[in-house]
Known about the structure:
By secondary structure, this protein is α/β, with parallel strands linked by helices.
Amino acid sequence: xxxxxxxxxxxxxxxxxxxxxxxxxxxxxxxxxxxxxxxxxxxxxxxxxxxxxxxxxxxxxxxxxxxxxxxxxxxxxxxxxxxxxxxxxxxxxxxxxxxxxxxxxxxxxxxxxxxxxxxxxxxxxxxxxxxxxxxxxxxxxxxxxxxxxxxxxxxxxxxxxxxxxxxxxxxxxxxxxxxxxxxxxxxxxxxxxxxxxxxxxxxxxxxxxxxxxxxxxxxxxxxxxxxxxxxxxxxxxxx
Length: 239
């Protein structure tokens, strides 16, 4: 279980981008951080991945304080970036093996075996020798997911997973995210795309001005939207 307690972050003299955020995400749960650009969603994910520091608060995993400064060594948290951040000069296979050899110190043979297993899983084995520029947006995202999962994180973060893709890929994205939850990863998704709320079995946390202002189960929000007035307003574009 991931437990974020009173997490705050400011940039200079501006109002806090995160203002004492409290969030609990259980193992196997998909948590959707919903909100407009600039409300702190991506900043929270970047903090969890040690790409930003935080000013105050704490993060716990299974009731033990999580040292975010060591995330790059422990690989407890994985990240699938909005623009995928794949290595254009490497093949699909090499994009996965590079982390395994450099970070997990796997031998090239071990890394290749692991990478190939994930390429089969995500139906990309036939692309193993292709370069990133030769892939579709959906294929790039699956490679980014495979690369993150290959390092065996406990928490996987998605930053705006549908924004760089054709809308027709939204269902595929939702299926991939949902499957990770079923595989007992803790999954956190930052998005403004309300279509994911319709497609995922998840908890939804609406963010505004650096705070979570309303939360609920997606199925309850779909069935009784009137009980979640802020989320309903966001869905209809009147927030």
